[in-house]
Write a structure and sequence with these properties.
The chain is of the alpha+beta class. The chain contains seven helices and 14 strands.
Length: 271
Amino acid sequence: MSARLFRGVREVACIDPGNRGLAYGDGLFETMRLHRGALPLWPRHLARLRAGALRLGIELPDIDFIEARIAELATGHDAGAVKLLLNRGDGGRGYAPPADVDPVWVLSGHPLPAGIRGGLRLHWCQTRLASQPALAGIKHCNRLEQVLARAEAERAGCDEGLMRDATGNAISATSANLLVLRGGRWLTPPVEDCGVAGVLRGWLLEQGLVDVSTLAPAEVETAEALALCNAVRGILPVASLAARAWAPSAAIETMRDSLAQAYPEFAQEQG
């Protein structure tokens, strides 16, 4: 892994002990698919980063400077993942956001996750996603709910965990959006109260390939097919959840084909 750390547009060597991202999770992050030296989904990630920074009141560093550093990191790499972590900066003790501080951000490169043969094994997590519309949708740095839920899935011997909101409705996996096929229509839960508005989920909605619908656990378990999607791994079929198992689905392959036509980097995830 390679990583570089910046305060505003100045490269620095280390994180200050008073950094608010370290102390409070006061920040945002984007994890992006690298393909042939470029980030094809970068405009969508940037739009979400801008929206999150506006919501939290965090100043964005100069975008041209960020893009130049991304280009440096990506050069010569055929495939991988790039993570951009942005926080408010250094502010010492106390929750009150400091004024006139330079944001601190980290840019790092990583290998792609290992592929999974067949479909994913999912586990219903007991850890719930709390309702907080002020934070819903954005990729903020407070991910303790997901940490606890993913630990549950690991203990259960599963590949991923499915999370519900406080009322019990399905929302997402710990690190991916949920896609549910019912009555021949692909559905995904709303994320206005909790959860992340994934950039790939957004593309599927814009293309009319998926609709938003509230989904109870029983509606998930009785679906014709399940899949997960995120911006690094693409669309992944689900093989099992609780006592239910699904055979490979032609509907999932059709949706994956549509994605691969628009973003060829995901073509290799099929099969």
